[in-house]
Automatic annotation (TrEMBL):
It comes from Hyphomonas oceanitis SCH89. This is Pilus assembly protein CpaD. InterPro entries: Pilus_biogenesis_CpaD-related (IPR019027). Pfam families: Pilus_CpaD (PF09476). Residues 217-236 are annotated as: Disordered. Residues 218-236 have a biased composition (Low complexity). PROSITE patterns: PROKAR_LIPOPROTEIN. Transmembrane segments: none annotated.
Length: 236
């Protein structure tokens, strides 16, 4: 065979081998799902968020002149829940059909007072009415929006073939139990939807700190002797 032709054939064969190796290296193993190439194990077991309405109904007793202590306690618990994880205004709805209209109005006033005593501002409370076409006596209704964290759907370990190690990757179940525990511990699931708005800073305090900085003084707050953290050496 012509030496030049032999050399050309050798180069062509080498090029084909290199091309084949490059093609193999650029493709993921067939046993690895596409989802494994995007994000992390926690991303593949994301926590869901749903919004729902929390309700409280307070019956209007036709024979009473004020709400019972039990009903007041229920309203207070409801308001505390609103303070913890409620969103939007707290709705207080007056029943337009009631066998005791005076108590119905008094119940609205009492609910607003309890809310204010527990830190809910009046502008956070929205009034409403319901039951205009009802034939029966309606209760007072309170409501607000809440968000719930939904845990991922973790499959049973019996559904996985633990002997299949072709992909050499973590199992699909990795991270699912962690996300489940996180969903149970989250106080307010709305935080998963984005950061909360920051309240305005204290401009007066900022001015004091800036003046001290300009004067070369310490910007730390003054401490009295009563705030000392020293351990007493007195014999007990």
């Amino acid at each position: 065979m012509n030496p030049k032709l032999k050399t050309a054939n050798t180069l062509i064969a080498a090029s084909l081998c290199l091309a084949g190796l490059t093609a193999c290296a650029s493709q993921a193993p067939t046993a690895v799902p596409d989802s494994y190439l995007q994000g992390t194990a926690l991303d593949r077991n994301a926590i869901g968020v749903t919004k729902r309405t929390e309700f409280l109904e307070i019956s209007i007793d036709p024979m009473s002149s004020q709400l019972s202590l039990k009903d007041k306690a229920r309203i207070e618990d409801f308001v505390r829940t609103y303070r913890t994880k409620g969103h939007g205004p707290m709705i207080v709805s007056l029943p337009e059909t009631s066998e005791n209209s005076q108590l119905a109005v008094e119940a609205i006033v009492t609910a607003r007072e309890i809310a204010w005593q527990n830190g809910v501002e009046y502008d956070e409370i929205a009034g409403s009415s319901h039951g205009a076409d009802s034939d029966a006596s309606e209760p007072m209704i309170m409501a607000f929006q809440v968000y719930d964290a939904i845990k991922p759907d973790c499959k049973s370990m019996a559904e996985y073939d633990v002997a299949d190690i072709r992909s050499n990757n973590e199992m699909p179940s990795l991270g699912c139990s962690i996300r489940t525990n996180q969903a149970a511990m989250i106080a307010d699931a709305a935080d998963l939807l984005g950061q909360r708005e920051l309240a305005a800073g204290d401009s007066m305090r900022r001015k004091v700190i800036l003046e001290k900085f300009r004067m070369g003084e310490s910007t730390a707050s003054a401490r009295s002797s009563a705030e000392s953290g020293a351990v007493s050496s007195a014999v007990q």
